[in-house]
Each structure stands twice: as structure tokens, then as C-alpha cells.
Amino acid sequence: MNAISFDLDALDALSAILVIPAVSAAVLALLPRYRLGARLNVLAALLTFVASLLLLSPDRPEPGRYLFVDDLNVVFIVLTTFIGFTTSVFSATYIAHELEIGRLTPQYLRFYHSMYQVLMFAMNLALSANNIGLMWVAIELATLTTILMVGIYRTHEAVEAAWKYFILASVGIALALFGTILIYLAAQPVMGGGVDAMVWTLLIERVARFDPALLDAAFIFLLLGYGTKVGLAPLHAWLPDAHAEGPTPISAVLSGLLLNVALYAVLRFKMLLAANVKAIAPGPLMVTMGLASLLFAAFMLYRRRDIKRMFAYSSIEHMGIITFAFGMGGPLANFAGLLHMTMHSLTKSAIFYSVGHIAQIKGTQKIAEIRGLTETHPVLGWGLVLGVFAIAGMPPFGIFMSEFLVVSSTFAREPLLTIPLVVGLLVAFGALLLRLNSVAFGDPLGSTQPAQASYVPLYAHLALVLGAGLYLPPLLVAWFQHVARQLG
Amino acid sequence: MSLLDFDIAHLFAGGLVLVSFMMIYQDRLYALLNVFALHSIVLAFSVGWQAYIQDAPHLYITTAIAIVFKGIIIPVALHRIIQRLGIHREIETVIGIGPTMVLGIGFVALSLAVMLRVTAEADRLAREDVALALSVVLLGLLMMVTRRNAVSQVVGFMSTENGLILAATGAKGMPFVVEISVAFSVLVAFVVIGIFLFRIRERFDTVDVQALDRFRGTQE
Amino acid sequence: MHDLAVQGGQLLLVLLMAPLLTGFVRKVKARLLRRQGASIIQPYRDLARLLQKDVVLADNASWLFRLAPYLIFAATWVAAALVPTFATSLLFNWTADLIAIAALLGSVRFFLALAGLDVGTSFGGIGSSREMMIASLAEPAILMIVFTLALVAKSTQLSTISDVMLSAHVGLRISLGLVLVGLIIVAIAENARIPVDNPATHLELTMVHEAMILEYSGRHLAVIELAASLKLLLYVSLIACIFVPWGLVGAGAGLGAYLLGSAAWVVKLAVGGALLALFETLTAKMRVFRVPVFLGAALMLGLLGTLLLFVSRGL
Asked: What is the pTM of this model?
């Protein structure tokens, strides 16, 4: 692939995070027994996570034409593989229950596990891609696998949700690819044609000489295209249905990981644009879309009657906050955005873990039919309570810190914008806590059979979020600050 | 590059936009599939011509994929699926064919205006290809969004792909054009096979508005 | 003097050839349907017969009703005489502007629609309203077509356009192809041909042009039928002179050249008529609700032709 000297451990780790999921996907497709499949899934995810930890070593391989590791993506790779691992643990018990009640059949389970690993592969590939074409392919592959998995229950609603997702994702694919082609067109006169004109590390060196008008147009297409997958309003229509109708592990992975990966892609291109002085400032566009998503989702939150749908809107809201932060720009806001991405992934997936088990126990996803959880299932109930506190932005959880940073940096730069920002945050806060109140407390409703749940992933995530809120390791802070500077 | 070369490339690219309009004009499903086959054939000619004048032999593979896969195999496969599943054969639109065409012309004008201004410094052939390709992409997206039957939405998606392939070939020397077209074709084959295997008939039958209201999504 | 003679010759020629063209089209259609069909000169006989018959007027027919046929005939004849048939150097060719011709035809349509409404029958009303619906889309389509042609030839004068098309500068242009298709669609709509309207029917569901002239009889009807034939001739000549201009004679040529030009023109008419007959035989009449979309397609083609022309010009 490239004849450059490399550090053996790190390059092997880079290949490992791709090869392990790919191989497991193939194996899982052939493995007939559910139990073994679930265990293998967890094992593969664990190995991938360990391999990604190796990437944290200070010796990094030289960027190749197709893959590379730098400060921005290493954190997300570790985060992705970690959440992939904990979700696979959750999935093992969750799916066992679905199998018991007959909602899924064994042959679909083979498909499910195989697709899960393909999804991990695609996300890792997207995060570590140096070639913008390869990044596009990987993100589309990831989207395709999630579409297939959203429709896996094959009810009318599930198929409808999967189809809607497919249509909107196609709009996103097309626009994103067009934007990628335009970037190539901008690069071509300066860098000549061929593969080199699509390599991100080479592009960022020469981007100051590209035609700014073409870069502007390209960024707009890329923002709209990848923004569809981030779930920014008004392109969010697929998100609530996909979360509500797909199996809960997929909702966790969607909210926690895929939205991040899509936003990561947008960030890469934002960095390109930031390095070209004459190009349009991508900020105002992102600020508008972020704010619109935040306000829209915040006001829609209260009226939701399905619990997974409600948390899906919460994801839209948080993605809006993150986009807003990156749109504001400047080291503080960028840092806040990066921190928020990490915290939101952990918290949202934790919430979905608890919601998944709750929905299984009660046999329904409707909020009105779930009551008094802290009495009947205290571990799950309190886990949900803590998770909702975290996502609503209560101190001392990590999300409070990042939201506070966003608000303060906005107040310093554009004081007027803090008004809609804070209004949105408060409305969402109120809606979530009100709903939490009815779900977690009050007289118990519905079945009270004990849960065969795995509590470890849930509480592990919550512990991490709490820990980050209290103390951020300086290494992490340094990394984020470095990247925040590059983001412009 | 001589004027004739440019004129022929313009002929094919403009022809692709025209055939996109013809697809929007159709109100029967079999006719739509035939026009889509024509769309892919015109794309194949366009890509083949680009391969010839850019001296890029790997683009001939894309031409072959466009003719064989999208011009023959996919229309025939969709034809069979429609017959087997007994899918409703009249195309239902959200806003009527006339207004859709007006919107389409608006999109074409918009994309030409934007693209020609933005690519002021690029090579002549690339500019024209990218501008017309964006028109085809937008027309395909318009078709996906204004049709109620799933098969016509899939056809709209595939015409969008064709537009993207036109754009990619117009950008001289872009790597992965062949890989992208293969990837797209695989994606579409996946979707088509998935439709068939999952036998999701209800999705493709006449839109029963009552049944859909049961599941309005955002109301829940 | 010479020019005046040539112009007068053209005037008479179109008048004499119009019924022949109509008869030819009907004959070819009949033959394609495996009938013998009436003879080619039957339209002349029909006109003669109608001229000898009495006029039957409704009680409440106004002066407009009696005057309209002559107005219609005059306007159509002038327009047909302006289109270059065998020569581009006619005396009045400075007036032979596409927009002027479109305006003349528009006034023809106006009077015809008024005449249809005049007597107050329901058939007349249906015909007039349908005609206006068709016109509301056909007119913009014609204008877009004129616009595209004017962009290519830098003038709206027909003789200039023909000259430009004859020269080699034009090259391969998809916009011209689009304009040709658009013009054919508009011609079909304007001449009340299948698939827009059936010239041989008197069923309420399917009439447009026939409905408007249902109340006419005798010499009025003869004049209107002649005007309709002239309109068909006009459109075929128009398409021929713009897109198939070979054979058109320039200025100051001798009698032999004029005869050759006329022969070429007759051949073009025959081919156009035969193609029209073939097309009418192969297609079914459209539902009235689909006609706006059909004409809208002509408008789109015109717009698209203009846009594509801008693209290839602007680079």
C-alpha cells in the first residue's frame, strides 16, 4: 500500500481494528448457534477495543494514502470501539430475550450479528480513512447496515421506518458524494489528478491555494449530505422512526456512534475550509442548523408518547448543540463540542441500555404504560434516572460541563444567540425531567417480572460520564485542545 | 479538445437531463422502467465518450457496468418483481406531474446558475459535466421525494446515481470512479434483492392513506 | 416588379396547395388503415360544394359570427404567405418575423374562440374553453421555441434563421433537437391533430376545434375549412424552412431555380404529411386532462433548450 517506515505496533493496531470486525462478520454469518454467536460478537468487540487502545501510544504511523491516525480520530476510534463493546454485551442479553418471545428468529440473528460487526468495521474505516472517497464509502456502508437492521423486525412500522431511512439516507449519500467530487475538482488544478488529490493529509497542506468558490459549494453539499446522517433539522425525519422501530442495541449504536461519525466527517471538511482564508466561514451555516435542530427537538420532546422516540429527539437536540458549538468556532467552543460528542455518546447509549430492558419487561414502549420503575426494578430505574439527569445537563455529570462551556463561549462572542440556546436547553431539560418523573416514580404499572438484564454496561458508562464531569484527565484535555485549535 | 468533441459531450449530458425529465413525465410503471433503461444507456454513451476523449480506458468498465447492469439487468429484475408481487402499476405522485416538471426546470436552472459560477476556473468540459450532472442528481432526488410507490422511488435513486457517475467522470482523473459505480450497483442490487426477499408487498401497493395514518410517525 | 411577382406567386401557391395537403394526409391515413380513402382532390370538391350551399344562421348570431370566418381566413393566409416556402428573398420577408406569425395565429385563435361562444350553445362553449386551455400552454411554448431559435440565429426573422441553419456554423446542437420536438408538439396541438384532438370526430367528449365551428355552414364553413388547411400548411412549411432548409432559393435567382425550390418544397410537404399521417395512425388520442401535461412538456423542452444553450454558450 505505501512504502513508508512505520511503527510496528501502531500500524498493526490500525489494521487490527479493521480486520477483526471484518473477519468476525464473515464468521458470524456462518455460525448457526445463537449463544456462540453472541459470545463471539462480544469477544470480537473486546479485541477491537483493546487494539484501539494500542493506537493511543505516542508513536503514530505515517499517514498512508488510505488510512491514518491523528489526534482527532484516535479519541473517536477508542470511543467507538468501547461503546461497540459495551453494546455487544447489552445486546447479548437483550437479544436473548427477543429470541424467547419470538420477535426474532435464529437465522435473522446470524444476519444481525454479522451486520453488527460490519457496522463496526465500517465505522472504524470511516474514522481512520485518510482518503475522502474511502470515508464516503465507509459511511455509506455503515448507513446501509443500520438500514437493514432497523427493518429487521419486519412489522409494517419497521419496514416503513427502514424505507424512510433509506430514502433520506440516499439524499444524503448523493449530496455528500457530489460534495466530495467538488473537493476533488478544487484540488485537481493545484495537486494534479489521481489518488493524491483525495488524501486528506495532503489536501490540508495545499488547501490555501484552492479555488474558494468551489470549496464553498463543496462544503454546502457536504454539510447537507452528511448533515442528513447527523440528524440536523430539517433533514432529521428518519431519525425518530429508525430509533423507535429498530432493535434497541441499534438505537444505541445509531445515537451513540453513527451520528458522531457523520459529524466527524463534517468536521474534517470544516478543517479544510478553515485553512483557506478566502473560503466562506462555515460557522454561520452550522450555527443556524444547530440552533434550529436544538429548538425544534426541544419543543417536540414533550409531546412524544413513545419512550424511544423521545430519546431520539433528545439525540437530535444534542447533535444540534454540538453543531452549534462547532459553528461558533474558537478554541473554547470547539473544545466544548468535542467533549460533548464524547459525553453524549456515553450517556445516550447508557439510556438506551436501560430503556431497552425496560421496554422488554413492560412489553411496551409507550410512556403512559410505564410507571414506578424505581419501585419495581430499582437497579434499572435508578440507572434511568441517573442517565436522564446526565443527558438533561445536571451537574456534576460531564454534559453539564460541556453545555456550560458552550453557553459561556457563545455569551462571550455572540450574546444574543445565548437566548435561543438557553431557552432550548431549558425546555428540553424540563420536558425530560417531567417525563422521567412519570416513568420512574409514582405507582407501578405493567408487569413486574424481574429483569434478566446486564447492568454493567449501563453503570460503566454512567460512571465514566460522572468521572469526566468531576475530573478530566490532562492527556484528554491536551488532545482536545490541540484539535480545537486546528478546527478554527 | 476540438469543438466537436465538446459538442458531442454536451449532447450526451444534455440528453441525460432530457431523459430525466422524461422519467418524471411517466405515469405508468413499466414505461418508467423502459425510460430508466434509456437513461442508463445515454449515461453509458456519455461515459464512453469521456473515456475516449480523456484517454482513460478504465472508464470503459464503467460504461460496461452502466449498459449491462443498469440498462438491462436491473430493469428486467424490477419488471419481474412487479409482476410477481402484483404491485400496483400506476404511479401516484405527491404534487402532480405538471408542477413536478416546473420544479424540475427550476432545479435545472438553479444548478446551472450555481455550478457555472462556482467552477469559473475549471476545465470547460468538467464545468459542463458537473453542472448538468447536478441537474440530473437534483431531478432524481425530486423524483424520489415526489413519488409514493417504492419502485418509482428506487428508480429515482438510480437516476441520481447516474448523475453522480456523470459528475465523477467529468472530473478528469478522479480515482475510484469504477469502484464507486460498482459500489452503487451493488447497493442497488442489495435493495432490489432485499425487497424481493423480504416480500414487503404492502409497502408497494396502492397507498392506503388510512393505514398510513395509523402510523404517522411524529404523532406518537 | 419581379419581387412582387414572386411574392404574389407564393401567396397563390400556398392557397392552392393547402387543400391538396389535407387531402394527401387523409389519403395516406386511409391507406395505412387499409381503406381506399377519398381521392386527393376531394377537399377541393368539398369546398366547391360548400360554397354553393346556403348559409344557415342561428337567430342570435351576431355580426361577429358572420365576420369571424373571413378574419380567420385572412390572418391565416397572410401568415402562411409570409413563411418562406421556396425562396428566402421575398418582398415582404422583413415582416416574416416568427413573433409576428405567432401573433397572427394568436388572433386567429381569438376570433375562433369568440365565434364558438357567440351563439351560446354548450358545444361551442366546451370547444372554446378547451381551446383556450391548450393555448395557455402552447403560446408560452412557442415563445420559448422562438427564443431558443433567436439565440442560435441572433434574429427572429425566418429568412435569417434559414440562412443560419444552412450555413455550417450551427454544429451539433441538442437544443435544436429539443426545439424541433417542442415545435412538433405545438404544431400537433395547434392543428387539432391526434393525440390532442381528433379532426374527424363530432363526439362531445373528444372535440375541441370541431366544437367551435359546429354551428357554421355554407360558405362560412368553406372559408374556415380552408383556413384550417392553410394552418396545417403553415406549420409544415415552418418546420421545413427552419429545420430542413435545403432547397430554399436565395435572392436574385432565375425561374429555373424557383421551380426547383418549389419542387423541393412540395417534396418536403409530402414527406411531412406522410409522417403526420403515420404518427396519427400509431397514436391514440389523449385524455383531455393529460393534454396540459403534454403541452407542458413542450414548454419544458423549450426551456431546457434555452438553458442548455446558455450552458454551451457560457463556457
From this structure: 0.86
